[in-house]
Design a protein that fits this description.
Oligomer: single chain
Low-confidence stretches: none
Largest sheet: 11 strands, mixed
Structural class: alpha/beta
CATH architecture of the largest domain: 3 Solenoid
Strand content: 25-35%
Helix content: 10-25%
Number of domains: 2
CATH topology of the largest domain: UDP N-Acetylglucosamine Acyltransferase, domain 1
Length: about 260
């Protein structure tokens, strides 16, 4: 399985390329970049900085990965990193920046899909199977848990957390944490129940779906303070791991929950 590099690409001799890598015309790969086996890099993509790309990834035309963070604190004196997991697809003109602090890493998980023109800012962390639709814009230090879906043209405030298996509608403005397992959309965002269809597709049991639906009503529909709602979740629905994850997410929110 040989690596194929178009003659019009520029690959620094210090870059590390795995087996079976394909690189298109006009692509530029810098000296500190590592690319895993069977990854394809489209025309005019730029991979720079201390960037590590997993195996089986597909990086499309014009993507820019590993560029310096848009953060005035960044000095560049010591390495910081961008890490992309295995089998992740990065569409046209996606940008993903290095972390700000020396030794820190901006992370994108395995089997993610980042659609065209989306932006992953410095120090963001995306779990596995995350889908980011076109033109989603993240500020720094955003955390998105596994299986979350973010609709197109959504903007996400810095330090915000997005919970697992949630679904955010397009053109939303997310300034506070979005709980796991829910649907939310709008500017300002409005809650729309649990993400039942998505959870069924992920093989959540009917019992867990029922427990999450009850938990949603306690947390978001009864006007309770978060502390009181979390206590009721554990009293009434304790023992379900999904409900416990929701409770833990709520009680550890720093920015507050989107409610």
């Amino acid at each position: 399985m040989s690596t194929v590099v178009h003659p019009a690409a520029f690959i620094d001799e210090r870059a590390e390329l795995g087996q079976g890598v394909e690189i298109g015309p006009g692509a530029v790969i810098g000296p500190h970049v590592q690319v895993g086996d069977r990854t394809t890099i489209g025309s005019h993509a730029l991979l720079t900085g201390w960037t590590r790309i997993g195996s089986g990834c597909r990086i499309h035309h014009g993507a820019v990965l590993g560029s310096p963070p848009q953060d005035l604190k960044y000095s560049g004196a010591e390495p910081s990193f961008l890490a992309i997991g295995d089998n992740t697809e990065i569409r046209e003109y996606v940008t993903a920046n290095l972390a700000t602090e020396p030794g820190a890493t901006t992370r994108v998980g395995n089997q993610c899909l980042l659609m065209a023109y989306s932006h992953v800012a410095h120090d963001c962390s995306l779990g596995d199977h995350v889908i980011i639709a076109n033109a989603v814009q993240m500020a720094g230090y955003v955390s998105i848990e596994e299986w979350a879906i973010v609709g197109g043209s959504t903007v996400i405030h810095q330090f915000t957390r997005i919970g697992r298996h949630c679904m955010i509608g397009g053109a939303s403005r997310i300034a506070q944490d979005v709980a796991p397992f829910v649907r939310v959309a709008g500017n300002p965002p409005r809650m729309a129940g649990i993400n039942k269809v998505g959870l069924e597709r992920r093989d959540f049991t009917p019992a867990t779906l029922q427990a999450l639906d009850r938990a949603y009503k306690i947390l978001f529909r009864q006007g309770l303070a978060v502390e009181e709602a979390v206590a009721r979740l554990r009293t009434e629905l304790g023992g379900d791991p999904a409900v416990e994850h929701l409770a833990r997410f709520a009680e550890t929110s720093v920015r507050g929950l989107t409610r």
